[in-house]
Amino acid sequence: MDDHLCFKYRLFDVINDIGTYKDFHNLLFQGSATSYEWIIWYHKNISNLKKWSRGTRTYAVFDANKLVGVWSVEPKVLKVDQGEIKVGRCFAVGIHPDYRRHGLFVSLSKFAIQQEKELGEYEYIIGFPQKGRTVIGGHFKAGWEQVQDIEIYSCKITPKLTGLSLYHANLIRDFNEVALLQQTYNGLIETAAYKNLRWLKHPDHQYLAYSNKNAYIILKQYSNFCHIIDMEGNLTDSINLLLVVRSLAVKHGWIEINTWCADNDINREAYVKAGFICGSEFALPVNMISVRINACETLSLNLCNLNMGIEEGY
C-alpha cells in the first residue's frame, strides 16, 4: 500500500450500511461474531434510550470506497463529586489489518475528537483499553489522558470451596422490581429500562442477573470461568451474592470468577471479603483514559463504581 493514498474521514451511518459495518467489525474483532441483531440492538435500540443525546455516533476512514477504520462513541451520564455530567464512551475502534502502521489510528481519533468538540455534547469521552496494548500510545498521541488503572480481581474455584445456595438470591426478570440504592459514588448512571434492555434482552447471549435484598449482580458465563459484569448494593448483601456465585461456580465447573475492580471501587471490600485477589488467568486489567471535549481539567474520580460491563458488549 502506498503511504500517499488520500484517505477520507466522515461520520458513518452504521444502520444504513449495516452489511459493510458487520463485515468490517468481524474482521477487526474476530472473536465477537457480531450479528445484524446485535448491531441494531446496540447502535439503535440502546442508543434511543438516551433521549437527551443525538445517539451513538461512528466515525470512519475510507480509502476511496473501502472502509479501513472505525471509531464509535455512545452517550452516557457520569456522576462525579460536582454533580452529573454528560460523557461519551469510546468503543469498537480499529484499523483494517492491511492499513496499520500508517498513522490512521491517531488521525481517525483526532478527526472524531474534533467533530465531537464541535458538537459539544460531552464534557469528556472516556475509554478503557487493556493495559499493555500498543493502542494506548496511539490514544495519548491523539490527546487522551490517563484517569486511573483498573485491576482485574479473581477468585479461584476448588471443589471444596464453600458458598451460599441459590435460595439466597432471586433471578431478576425486571429491574423495575429491584431495590436500587441511591447512587452516592462516582460512576455511570443507568436507568432500570437501560438495564432491562442491556442485560435481560441481549440478542446473542444469556446473562445471569440476581438480586439479594438491596444488591444485584450481573454475570456472564464462559466455558470454564465466569465474569462479573456489574454489581451494586450494600456490603453484606453484595458479599452474600458473591458467595452464591461461588456455589454456582462449583456447580458449573468454572475454575475462576473474575471482575474489573479499581483501588477506589466501592465493591473492592466485598470482593476481598469473598476471597477475591488481584490478578486473573483469563482477563487483563485496563487503563481508564479520557479526552476533554468541553472540560478544562483532566477527569478525576474518587470512590467509584464504573459498571465495567460497558466493556462487555458481546
Overall CATH class of the largest domain? Alpha Beta
The CATH topology of the largest domain corresponds to Aminopeptidase
Give the end-to-end Cα distance, rounded to a whole number of Å.
32 Å
Estimate the mean pLDDT confidence: 92
- Contiguous uncertain segments of 5+ residues: none
| Structural class category | alpha+beta
Instruction: Report the strand count.
Output: 15
SS strand fraction:
25-35%
H/E order of the elements?
A: EHHEEEHEHEEEHEEEHEHEEE
CATH superfamily heading of the largest domain:
Gcn5-related N-acetyltransferase (GNAT)
- What is the approximate shape? globular
CATH hierarchy: architecture of the largest domain: 3-Layer(aba) Sandwich
Largest sheet geometry = 15 strands, mixed
> DSSP helix count?
7
Number of domains: 2
Cα-atom radius of gyration: 20 Å
Percent of residues in helices = 25-40%
Give a description of the structure.
With 314 residues, this protein is of the alpha+beta class. The protein has two domains: 7-147 and 287-311, Aminopeptidase (3-Layer(aba) Sandwich), CATH 3.40.630; 152-278, 3-Layer(aba) Sandwich (Aminopeptidase). The chain has seven helices and 15 strands. It has a 15-stranded mixed beta sheet that branches. Strand 4, helix 3 and strand 5 form a beta-alpha-beta unit. The longest helix is centred in the C-terminal third of the chain and has 18 residues, at 235-252. The radius of gyration is 20 Å and the shape is globular.
